[in-house]
Amino acid sequence: MIPKTESELAECVAGAQGALRIQGGGTRDIGVPVAGAVLSTAGLSDVSLYEPGALTVVAAAGTPLSEVEATLAAEGQRLAFEPMDHCGLLGGQGASTIGGVVAANVSGPRRIQGGACRDSLLGVRFVDGMGRVLKNGGRVMKNVTGYDLVKLMAGSWGTLGVLTEVSLKVQAVPEAMGCILVNGLSDVDAVSAMSAALGSPYDISGAAHAPSGVDGHPVTMIRVEGLETSVAYRAAKLTNLLAQFGGEVVVERDSMKVAAGWAWVRDVTLMQGGRGDVWRISVKPSEGPNVVAKLRETHPNISVLYDWGGGLVWVQVPQGTDVRAVEFAGHATLIRGSEKTRSILPVFQSESAPLAALSQGIREKFDPRGILNPGLMG
User: Fold this and answer.
1) C-alpha–C-alpha distance, residues 127 and 111, integer Å
2) Rg (alpha carbons) of the chain, rounded to whole number
3) Is residue 146 scored above 60 in pLDDT?
4) Residue 94: its pLDDT value, please?
5) I need a surface site. Which of 239, 252, 350, 373 has the fewest CB within 10 A?
6) Confidence at residue 55, expressed as pLDDT on a 0 to 100 scale
7) Would you place residue 374 in the very low, low, confident or very high pLDDT band (cuts 50, 70, 90)?
8) What is the Cα 368 distance to its own chain's centre?
């Protein structure tokens, strides 16, 4: 089913006799496999309102992410949360949609500065499990309502409703950018270096570490953006700050090279085309190297990428490996795994009993028939 309008989509949901598998561009096959009729939002595609002066864009949920980004780029603007493209990592062939980005709360390296996708979300329109059209929020940040459905829908993975339209705040593309590269650091030292940079007054917009970079050697990346003179000043200060950690410090000021390097981090290019499962682990930055060290005790050849200053750890492990067998304070999500693995292992982190009861109560409120992506989140 590929409805062309919101009313048609509402009719599809209202008339559904069984489970529905909600799909945007089909690029994020994540979660427990859903057996049901595919309901696609691809037919709802349009940037219906764009006000560069107000830093606001409104788009139908099925609008390709690339179209939204191109529209913004033409006016020198961008999405603050730098959403990743899962196609390469998951081997998909489709085109990511803005609705899919919001439904999965996809947030890239700039999250440490600009916030997550949900922090840029101003308003939503969606169809609930009964086929009712609901809306919440608007085109400004002030939002006084009984329920903050805007935040609730971000990261709900289509289990509460089918998004039909989203409103987002945007930001200006900076005049310049630079990247301070520190070569040769261990995981522990790299996290310390990133923490020092993030704790400095130099306004960092990206902090990542690859134990095995493009050339196979460890590289720590610190990004700064803004006015040309400001970037030059902060890069010089950060060079001095990071020199104490013992690695070779190099400053890259070519904006195209900097952008390419951070796209490599954003899209987890290191693990694209490889074999094995890919997990996304969220922990306190100082705990990341400990989790990785424990995993390496049994799987010494795993691939690893740290983002968000070490608070987000991507790991590629042999198929069927449950990284949660290593105890840590945080949560983990299986991003890439075979259908068999996703059917056996919990894809999303298990919730505590009180939180699980609350989540179930919310789902029953918005989808009492349990037809929207049933079981996808476990």
Assistant:
1) 28
2) 21
3) no
4) 81
5) 350
6) 96
7) very high
8) 28
Structure token digits, residue 328: 């840590």
- Residue 331 tokens read as 């949560």
| Dihedral, 352, 357, 362, 363 alpha carbons, nearest 10 | 90
The pLDDT of residue 230 is above 90: yes
Q: Report the amino acid identity of residue 311.
A: G
Could you give the CA distance from residue 183 to residue 122 in angstroms, rounded to a whole number? 40
Beginning with the edge strand found earlier in the chain, give each strand of the sheet holding 162-169 in spatial order. 47-51, 56-60, 162-169, 121-127, 133-137
Distance CA 117, CA 140 (A): 15
Q: Amino acid identity of 42?
A: A
Domains annotated on the chain, with CATH: 6-172 (3.30.465.10), 176-266 (3.30.70.260), 269-344 (3.30.70)
Longest CA–CA separation in the chain, Å? 64
Residue 310 has pLDDT above 50, yes or no: yes
Mean pLDDT over 37-64 rounds to 95
**Do residues 30 and 24 make contact, with C-beta atoms less than 8 angstroms apart?**
no
| Placement of tokens 């764009």 in the chain | 50
Question: Of 169, 91, 109, nearest to 335 (Cα)?
Answer: 91
CA atoms within 13 A on the CB side of 123: 21
> How many whole angstroms separate alpha carbon 20 and alpha carbon 280?
26
Closest of 203, 69, 80, 97 to residue 141, by C-alpha: 80
- pLDDT tens digit sequence for 312-333: 999 999 999 999 998 898 999 9
DSSP string, 128-156: -TTS-EEEEE-SSS----SS-HHHHHTT-
Determine phi and psi for 199, rounding to 5 degrees: -85, -5
At 184-210, the pLDDT tens digits run 999 999 999 999 999 999 999 999 999
Q: Is the separation of the CB atoms in 204 and 198 below 8 Å?
A: yes
pTM (two decimals): 0.92
CB burial string 7-26: b at 16+ within 10 A, e below: eebbebbeebeebbbbbbbb
